[in-house]
Amino acid sequence: MKRMLLALALAGSTLLAANASAETLKIGTEGAYPPFNYQDSAGKLGGFDVEIGLALCEKMKVECEVVAQDWDGIIPGLIAKKYDMIIASMFITEERKKQVAFTDPYYLAAMTHAAAKNSGITDFTNEGMKGKAIGAQSGTTQADYVAAVYPDADIKLYPTQDEVNLDMANGRLDLQVGDMIPLLDWVTKNDDGKACCELIGQPITDPKFVGEGVGIAVRQDDNDLREKLNAALKAIREDGTYQKINDKYFSIDIYTMK
């Protein structure tokens, strides 16, 4: 009898541990895209994406762990079940929908150009950009845009946005195309960005490239998680949690871009 009770107790504790484990989700993010996601000097992940993700987990009443993943491997990592969701400022596009499913947008998106101050660049046609060195982060919709719109430019792609910014600041690029909010942050708050560069031209809002906004990616068969995330997103919009996080990083509501 004692052995039976002990076996039942062990089985119960194993079941409880399994249930607890099932309630722990992993969030994949890049960690190299400030102010949306970054790693501090101690290696801790932070930023708007991270804080929104943790707020959603709290609303869903689940434990969450945030892990860093290079951008080029971020969708393969989700498919391989290294994490359960991607919260990394990923534009919702038709091409990506072939691989993953998306939640409702958690903010709107636009892209823009940045160039050296007083660059004199005003012609944003392929002919106007012919031979110019244009940078973008590889594997992004910005890189897709540059390749499609400026095929005769000298296109340079980089693993991270920070590396694009570095070459821009050092005069190795004539122009770059990037997500509007991080580039605005760079040219107004970063010492190198403020010294060298400015945003030019009109915002790039073509749905072919910026999609339907920025969403959380999950595996295509994980509809239950997608619906829970949508419900949690609605809840943090309604209770003010989203706005509190937003205001920590931005002067406008990026959910509406107003």
Characterize the structure shown:
The termini are far apart. The protein is of the alpha/beta class and 258 residues long. The protein has two domains: 25-109 and 210-249, D-Maltodextrin-Binding Protein, domain 2; 111-204, D-Maltodextrin-Binding Protein, domain 2, CATH 3.40.190.10. The protein has helices at residues 2-22, 48-60, 74-79, 94-97, 126-129, 141-149, 161-169, 180-189, 191-196, 207-210, 223-238, 241-249, and strands at 24-29, 32-33, 37-39, 45-46, 63-68, 85-91, 101-102, 111-116, 133-137, 154-158, 175-179, 197-204, 214-218. The chain has twelve helices and 13 strands. The protein has a five-stranded mixed beta sheet with strand order 5-1-6-13-7. A five-stranded mixed beta sheet has the order 10-9-11-8-12, with helices on both faces. The chain has a three-stranded antiparallel beta sheet with strand order 2-3-4, covered by helices on one side. It comes from Shinella fusca. Keywords: Signal. Belongs to the bacterial solute-binding protein 3 family.
Short note summarizing the structure:
The chain has 258 residues and is α/β, with parallel strands linked by helices. The chain contains twelve helices and 13 strands. Residues 1-22 form the signal peptide.
Q: What descriptors fit this protein?
A:
258 residues; alpha/beta; D-Maltodextrin-Binding Protein, domain 2; 2 domains; five-stranded mixed β-sheet
